[in-house]
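Whiteboard transcription, Tuesday session. T.W. wrote the structure tokens on the left side:
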């Protein structure tokens, strides 16, 4: 299992990059560079390319609506070149609040947009002249949509790789099925081993049945917070603010994908309560309403025996790569946790 983590900007970007370089030596394999509505991801990814040697640098995630598919491909190819073939293009649809509220772009047909973007990216990396006519993207533009002067072009540079890995952040059945069919990796949210098959099993099977047999198996990233050792269980509570934010307030009430997944994990009443409290401004109560059972099952926090059990549960649920948050009040503590996790994973 590869080990990945999300780049944190909490202490400043340069400091975060230094920590990634140290974690790389401790066994970290992949770093996700977030974007949402913060600083852009590619700038940070290019900086990390110069500061690291081995770790895969992944966007986590870039919304397909905010860039043309050809620009997504150009960006990934550029970072892949700077890093010596260590880029992974993580894409997704984000949500209507960010797309329409921050970018002023309509949020529509996310599955089709992502599928077409993937097809176009792979054409660019193969240095084919890009000629594409889809539901949402037409390249070159026809005369009735533009000047009629556009002509098919191909990437000037020769990419380091003609097939850069693509990861999709997907939650709904249609998007998960599409991811299992055409992507290289899947980054789900609120993945809990015990409920994963009921939520996503059918969609994954549907997509894998259509998958190109020449493409490597889908890499599934999931895990949770990491704090390995005796007496660490109280650290599970650190996840409460983020869970409450996503389950309670991420997206409109009727369009909160994270809340829907939390319900499908078997916590329907709790999801309703958390959302109601959070939207009423009672954030502390929303955090307190998150079940302790969920915090345990969705984490890798506890003694070595507990964490090993959770790793096996994740593996049995189809997880073949870890996405974790390394807990610790200092860089040294987080590095130590990464080393402990690396040792446990390697001993499985």
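and on the right, the sequence the group agreed on:
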């Amino acid at each position: 299992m590869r080990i990945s983590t999300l780049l944190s900007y909490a202490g400043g970007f340069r400091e975060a990059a230094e920590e990634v370089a140290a974690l790389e030596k401790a066994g970290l394999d992949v770093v996700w560079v977030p974007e949402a509505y913060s600083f852009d991801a590619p700038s940070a990814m290019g900086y990390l390319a110069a500061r690291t040697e081995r770790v895969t640098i992944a966007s986590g995630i870039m919304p397909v609506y905010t860039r043309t598919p050809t620009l997504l491909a150009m960006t990934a190819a550029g970072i892949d070149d700077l890093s010596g073939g260590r880029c992974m293009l993580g894409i997704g649809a984000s949500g209507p609040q960010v797309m329409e509220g921050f970018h002023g772009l309509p949020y529509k047909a996310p599955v089709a947009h992502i599928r077409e973007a993937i097809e176009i990216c792979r054409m660019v990396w193969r240095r084919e002249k890009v000629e594409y006519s889809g539901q949402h993207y037409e390249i070159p533009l026809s005369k009735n949509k533009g000047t009629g002067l556009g002509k098919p072009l191909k990437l000037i540079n020769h990419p380091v790789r003609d097939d850069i890995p693509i990861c999709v952040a997907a939650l709904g059945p249609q998007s998960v099925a599409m991811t299992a069919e055409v992507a290289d990796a899947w980054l789900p949210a609120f993945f809990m081993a015990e409920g994963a098959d009921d939520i996503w099993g059918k969609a994954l099977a549907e997509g894998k049945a259509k998958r190109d047999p020449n493409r490597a198996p889908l890499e599934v990233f999931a895990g949770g917070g990491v704090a390995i050792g005796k007496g660490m269980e109280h650290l599970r509570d650190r996840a409460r603010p983020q869970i409450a934010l996503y389950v309670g307030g991420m997206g409109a009430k009727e369009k909160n994908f994270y809340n829907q997944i939390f319900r499908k994990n078997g916590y329907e009443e709790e999801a309703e309560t958390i959302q109601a409290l959070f939207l009423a401004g009672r954030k502390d109560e929303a955090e307190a309403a998150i079940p302790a059972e969920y915090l345990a099952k969705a984490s890798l926090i506890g003694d070595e025996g507990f964490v090993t059990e959770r790793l096996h549960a994740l593996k049995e649920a189809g997880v073949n790569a870890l996405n974790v948050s390394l807990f610790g009040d200092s860089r040294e503590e987080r590095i130590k946790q990464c080393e402990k996790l690396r040792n446990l994973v390697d001993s499985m």
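Someone added at the bottom: The chain has a mean pLDDT of 96.
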